[in-house]
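Sample pair:
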Amino acid sequence: MKRYYPAFFLIAAPYIFLLIAILAIVLDDGLSNSALNITVISYLVMVAFIFLPNIIFAIYLLVKKGESTRILFWDMVLKLSHIPFFIVILTVGIILSLLLTFTISLLLLLVAVDYLLLLATSSYGIIGIVRARKEKQISLASAIVHIVLHLIFVTDVISALIVYLQSRAAKRKKASAARSTTPRTNYRTAHRTSKAKPKPKPRR
């Protein structure tokens, strides 16, 4: 689990960003230019120091031949942990549009925040899917479908759950098959064989 410490930062990053944005708006008495600038700067810092390193780390897992099931597990954890964040962003967008204070710049910011976060988390899923395919855990068609679904809102969460369960089931099936093909020694047969062996005659 220690190997996946970048994922912990990715889990927390959106909520820290959201806290900074709320504080900037509240302390500046509204959605002013300065509050928007602080929000944009904090977002760029998050992209540079958390999103990009996590994408690079996911690629590193592919090069180092990381275990597909574990990678897909973290993909699922990341997707589920960010559901509240996406709900908040969607709610904020709807409220602002109803209040007629929704600007193009704010719209682009919200879309960028959501989609780049999706790409950062989906990097784990895509790498895990590629590895699962190489390990013959899923079919080629299934791998292509899951990769596409990982690039779309909502379906990425559903895909993350399904492909993780598929990978885990394939891993357990493979382990069970390996145990069943392992030769087992029949204790009774071995015991009888040892009794049937003639005892060596004592030397004179």
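The longest helix spans residues 33-63.
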